[in-house]
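Notes from the pairing session

We agreed to fold both candidates in a single pass and log them together. This is the raw record for the first candidate, unedited. Please don't reformat it; downstream parsing expects exactly this layout.

Candidate A
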Amino acid sequence: MLQKIRWSLSLIAVLVVVIVAFQNQDAVPLTILFFSGEYPLTLLLLGCSGVSFVLGCLMTAWRIRSRHKAQSARDSKAKTESNAKAKKEDTSAKAASPPSKKKGLGNNRSAEESIGIDQEAT
């Protein structure tokens, strides 16, 4: 809904600029630095409006890009902190649990010994 309102207001603004520009077709003198001459007011109004539109688009794109960069940095920082917290919890859980016996050649017992069955009794 808000997007439709924006488009409607933008369309009305463009129409107002075009109507005002074409109602003022008189030639006016223009001097900018070393550049001077007489130009139709229509051309000047439409030119200034076009330049303003382009500058507004560039500024909006710059703000969106900087906002996106800031959001990416926040997400990256949160992910890094989450990973560090998970690692810390994992290491503390490993430290709290008793060390497990690894089966190797020096610590090899038969299944009967591990469950307490006496081989000679059978």
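Candidate B (folded immediately after A)
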Amino acid sequence: MADVSTALKWGPGFVGMSIGLAMYGVLVRQFLFYTMAFPRDKRLVNYTCTLQPSWDLSTNLVSRFMVSFLVQCFYAHRVWMICGRSKLLTSIVLFVALAALVFGVCTCLTCPSFDDL
């Protein structure tokens, strides 16, 4: 078997790490811009923006579904306020948000992990 050069071993990882660090810098800048532009937001909304997904794929997907659920709950709250406290519309939005969360978590639990491959 032929030797694999160091560039072929470490090159793709270095490129991926460089892109990941650049994207992390963009994320930090967006968060700082958000906190400076909207200082009167509630703390829960502010702390929700600081959620960081982990490197594990299944935990990353579950955190994405959780953030999506929180955003949809915020949307349901806005529907509640704008539509004159309509229980029907708000319950439809909350039902769809909860269904998406449940289906997403079930999908993550039933999918095989990369360790099994």
